């Protein structure tokens, strides 16, 4: 991260022993000392308007759009000009879970040889950040319509869950990944920040109406 000019590291439930030892890494002390710890992915990406997950794919059945790194980088750089972007990496052993993916807007992967697709986590991060830094322009403020942050979208999603459960919709369509599907659906809407208050008001009114006792 320090090599390519990225300073904001966020970690979710890090393994304490290894994380403390890593703070002494040569040239990385400033990034690691300033690292922010979170209890969940949702909290870690709450102020980001774009969340991109990384995956080696393997034999997984993906439910998100997937792009190669070289095509994903320009999209990420463009978003960085006006807002925060989270690039999400999982552990070397397990990668990211489907629950982690449900917080992502789309996924990207590094094209590797089929006989050996797994990469060391640090190397994967370095490759991704190099591609983002290559030919990148400095961030600038944009007057274009700003997208809602991940935290705002999650608040809309939470109230939508209330409405779906209160109306019985999810009970009539029971699936193990129902909430993950709904979360992905909401993120595909790319809600503008200025519309969040309206959506929250609409959904709260629906929940109130569904749960209000009949007279």
What is shown here, in short?
This protein is α/β, with parallel strands linked by helices and 215 residues long. The protein has helices at 16-22, 29-33, 41-44, 69-80, 98-101, 121-133, 150-167, 169-172, 178-188, 196-211, and strands at residues 10-12, 36-38, 50-54, 66-68, 85-88, 106-109.
SS content category: alpha/beta
Measure the end-to-end span: 61 Å
Q: If strands are numbered along the chain, what order do they take across the biggest sheet?
A: 4-6-3-5
Counting DSSP H or I runs of 4 or more residues, the number of helices is 10
The strand count comes to: 6
Shape: globular
Oligomeric state: single chain
Strand content: 5-15%
Average pLDDT score: 87
Give the proportion of residues in helices.
40-55%
Q: What integer value in Å does the Rg equal?
A: 19 Å
- Provide the low-confidence segments as ranges: none
Order of helices and strands: EHHEHEEHEHEHHHHH
* Major beta-sheet overview: 4 strands, parallel
Q: What would you say this structure looks like, in words?
A:
The protein is an alpha/beta fold. Helices cover 44% and strands 10% of the residues. The strands form two sheets. Strands 4-6-3-5 form a four-stranded parallel sheet, covered by helices on one side. α7 (150-167) crosses α9 (178-188). The longest helix has 18 residues, at 150-167. The relative contact order is 0.14. The mean pLDDT is 87.
